[in-house]
Amino acid sequence: METLDTVPDEEFLRLDHQICFSLHAATRAFNGVYREALKELGLTYPQYLVMLVLWEHGELPVKGIGERLRLDSGTLSPLLKRLEVAGYVERRRSAEDERSVTVRPTAAGAALRERALGVPRRIAAATGLDLASIGDLRDRLAALAARLDSLDPAELRASCD
């Protein structure tokens, strides 16, 4: 069995050995599938993610949406503006703290949810995986993200020496 200590450094530099590239390639493939699945809704994939969060949680501060989607406000603000122009969300300043903006789905945004109900099932079918495998993969990716998020940069530098 290969371990980190037994694989030659040169092998680690091969593109097909990079987990980041495998994730990147899978992400690009998913984006293509979602582009088709979301075309009839008039949403981009990032806009769809915002709507998923709002459909699940209702009204949220922009900061809360960003935390759930792992997006900064510079990326999230234009998405929210486009969704607002489309009539799917409403943004308003908090009465308690004018620096805080909350977002909620409009009636049109709620109606869009009904039209989006079939998207997850179509995406799941497109993967060719059964639900247990999808759940396992999702759990493993979540654990990977949590591990990488918790990594101390000093630990990373030390592991490369």
In short:
By secondary structure, this protein is mostly helical. The protein is built from nine helices and three strands. The longest helix has 21 residues.
Percent of residues in beta strands: 5-15%
CATH architecture label name of the largest domain: Orthogonal Bundle
Strand pairing plus helix content: what structural class?
A: mainly alpha
What shape does the CA trace take? globular
Low-confidence stretches: none
The oligomeric state of the chains shown is single chain
Provide a count of the helices: 9
Look at the structure and give the CATH class of the largest domain.
Mainly Alpha
Strand order in the sheet with the most strands = 1-3-2
What is the terminal separation in angstroms? 23 Å
CATH superfamily of the largest domain: Winged helix-like DNA-binding domain superfamily/Winged helix DNA-binding domain
What's the story with the biggest beta sheet?
A: 3 strands, antiparallel
Order of helices and strands: HHHEHHEEHHHH
Number of strands: 3
Number of domains: 2
Q: Round the Cα radius of gyration to an integer and report it.
A: 20 Å
Task: Please tell me about this protein's structure.
The chain is mainly α. The chain has two domains: 9-128, Arc Repressor Mutant, subunit A (Orthogonal Bundle); 129-161. The chain contains nine helices and three strands, in the order αααβααββαααα. It has helices spanning 9-12, 19-39, 45-57, 62-69, 73-85, 107-116, 119-127, 131-150, 153-159, and strands spanning 60-61, 89-93, 101-105. Strands 1-3-2 form a three-stranded antiparallel β-sheet. β2 (89-93) and β3 (101-105) form a beta hairpin. α2 crosses α7 (119-127). The chain is globular. It starts with 8 loop residues before the first helix and ends with a helix. The mean pLDDT is 92.
